[in-house]
């Protein structure tokens, strides 16, 4: 299954939350517009998807949504051949109800990429889409390695063999069944629109848990291991790490700066092509 051509791919980017864990930073600036290396987080999200052929974007807006709408329309709409839908879904509306307000804009039978607007990412989205279609999945979830913020005690046969910090963790053992591997959900998912039929969006309290559990029970939920750049920004410390204001042994700041340079080249290339049209 080949990836869709550039004018067909859809994405839904949630932009409605208050970003309260960032504290005073989001009192005046909505979280998607908080800057990383001089660019809003949303700039990274949009261009990372644009790079992979997404041209239809739906933004369910909420807290300070008008600021986000103005930024998107000024920066991208009409400039890069994209179809941008900004929908005011309310300041404190639950995610499921936000989705209910925008789902009719997604064509029937279409697949769409679903993300929050607080994550820097750069990975092979086309490979994820290919898996989603090849396995005829209704939902494809992606998992990531995470770096533990605590010291890790390594055991073998019940005996401690090592202690260290800042080590990447690929999976966790669950409490009641150690044979099960618990993978860390990246928050980036591919969905078929028909998957939304498995949940009552108007009354659902926990969108992800309710929908994904329902799809898993049908046997049509796939898993993709995300390899590449992935960094969610939830706290002021996260922002300091990615902006290289504090030390980071995992090189997140450097990786993000490289992503920024690559994405900026997309803008530059488009500007040059537009200039000589």
Polypeptide structure, described:
This protein is α/β, with parallel strands linked by helices. It is 30% helix and 29% strand. The strands form 5 sheets. Strands 1, 4, 5, 6, 8, 13, 14 and 15 form an 8-stranded mixed β-sheet that branches. It has a two-stranded antiparallel ribbon with strand order 2-3. It has a two-stranded antiparallel sheet with strand order 7-16. The longest helix has 24 residues. It is globular. The mean pLDDT is 90.
Number of E strands: 16
SSE series:
EEEHEHEHEEHEEEEEEEHEEHH
Number of helices: 7
End-to-end distance: 33 Å
- Spatial extent as radius of gyration: 19 Å
Q: What percentage of amino acids are in beta strands?
A: 25-35%
Describe the secondary structure blueprint for this structure:
Blueprint: E1 9-14, E2 35-36, E3 39-40, H1 41-51, E4 54-61, H2 65-75, E5 83-88, H3 95-102, E6 111-116, E7 119-122, H4 125-134, E8 139-144, E9 146-147, E10 152-156, E11 159-164, E12 168-169, E13 171-173, E14 181-192, H5 207-218, E15 221-225, E16 229-232, H6 236-242, H7 252-275
How is this structure best summarized?
This protein is of the alpha/beta class and 277 residues long. The chain has helices at 41-51, 65-75, 95-102, 125-134, 207-218, 236-242, 252-275, and strands at residues 9-14, 35-36, 39-40, 54-61, 83-88, 111-116, 119-122, 139-144, 146-147, 152-156, 159-164, 168-169, 171-173, 181-192, 221-225, 229-232.
């Amino acid at each position: 299954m080949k990836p869709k051509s550039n004018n067909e791919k859809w994405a839904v980017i949630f932009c409605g939350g208050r970003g309260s864990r960032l504290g005073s930073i989001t009192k005046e600036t909505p979280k998607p517009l908080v800057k990383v290396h001089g660019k809003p987080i949303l700039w990274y999200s949009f261009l990372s998807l644009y790079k992979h052929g997404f041209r239809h974007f739906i933004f369910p807006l909420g807290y300070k949504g008008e600021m986000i709408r103005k930024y998107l329309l000024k920066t991208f709409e009409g400039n890069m051949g994209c179809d941008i839908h900004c929908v005011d879904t309310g300041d404190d509306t639950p995610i499921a109800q936000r989705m209910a307000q925008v789902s009719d804009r997604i064509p029937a039978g279409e697949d769409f990429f679903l993300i929050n607007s607080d994550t820097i990412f750069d990975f092979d989205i086309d490979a994820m889409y290919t898996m989603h279609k090849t396995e005829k999945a209704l939902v494809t979830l992606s998992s990531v390695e995470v770096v533990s913020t605590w010291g890790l005690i390594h055991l073998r046969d019940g005996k401690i063999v090592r202690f260290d910090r800042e080590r990447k963790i690929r999976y966790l053992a669950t409490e009641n069944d150690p044979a099960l591997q618990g993978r860390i959900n990246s928050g980036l998912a591919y969905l078929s629109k028909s998957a939304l039929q498995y949940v009552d969006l108007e009354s659902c309290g926990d969108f992800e848990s309710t929908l994904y559990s329902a799809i898993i029970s049908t046997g049509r939920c796939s898993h993709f291991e995300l390899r590449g750049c992935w960094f969610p920004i939830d706290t002021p410390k996260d922002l300091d790490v990615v902006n290289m204001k504090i030390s980071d042994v995992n090189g997140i700041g450097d990786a993000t700066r490289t992503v920024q340079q690559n994405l900026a080249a997309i803008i530059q290339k488009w500007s040059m092509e537009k200039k000589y049209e």
